[in-house]
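Let us work through a complete example step by step.
Step 1: write down the sequence.
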Amino acid sequence: MFPHERSLVKKMEGKSFALLGIDFDPSQKVLKDAIEKEHLTWRNWFDGSDGPIGKQWNISVIPTFYILDAQGVIRYKGIHGGSGPEIDKAVNTLLKEMNPEKKEAALSSTK
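Step 2: predict the structure and record it as tokens.
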């Protein structure tokens, strides 16, 4: 389930990018085991099956991606199913906006 996310984190290393996870498993142990088994290097929060984060962000499908710009504004949301090309396009768009003179570098580094 996480190959694209791992790849994206590696490709974006050193850039203005952060991947954060919210976990809805039934226990913190399940989350801890998944982090170890799947080699997840990004920050993950445990929210449980009926936690406040999922309710506040209106998450009904796993995975759901919210992509925020440099000012913290949600620019893309509800990208379900881990669609790699769709997520890459959203991230590239925001990187180009941050650094218009570096368009080509952003595009080539996430391919």
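Step 3: interpret the result. Residues 12 and 21 are 16 Å apart (CA to CA).
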